[in-house]
Amino acid sequence: EGLTFSNLGLLLWQTGDFQGAVSYYDQARSRLAKAGGIAHARVLNNLGLCYISMAEYAKARGYFALALSEFQQRHSPRDSVRTRLNLGRTDMLDGRLKLARRTLEQALDEAARLRDRSAIADIRNNLGQTLWKQGLFPQAQVQFQEALTVDQTLGDKRSIA
Asked: Do residues 81 and 116 touch, judged by C-beta distance below 8 A?
């Protein structure tokens, strides 16, 4: 039941109905909380994605922090990397650029250890955006180029665009 609510939340998030997605994710969270585990942590992460989509950065940050803690407790490094990326993106969008940069650099180190090329590309893209907002244009360009190279290698047309 919890996973079904989570899937409904994902569907609504993908169609842009963020409030509806939050409603389903809240139901999923309450049903999965007792069992804990990766599914519960993913719902917390997805709630953060809904709130970042609505520019409610403090709420997003809170959910990402909870999800990250659960992923780390359950030794789920790939999920931890993605959640750390989401946390860094939240800080970047919220104008907390120094914190975003530190968080994204940490995520990049973790993704490199895992050899998660897709995550590396996404992190480099967000790091490039952060550096750009800081006025560090040459460093931003390097990150964007590295992200593009990885995306081309992976054939990720959406990210390439």
From this structure: yes
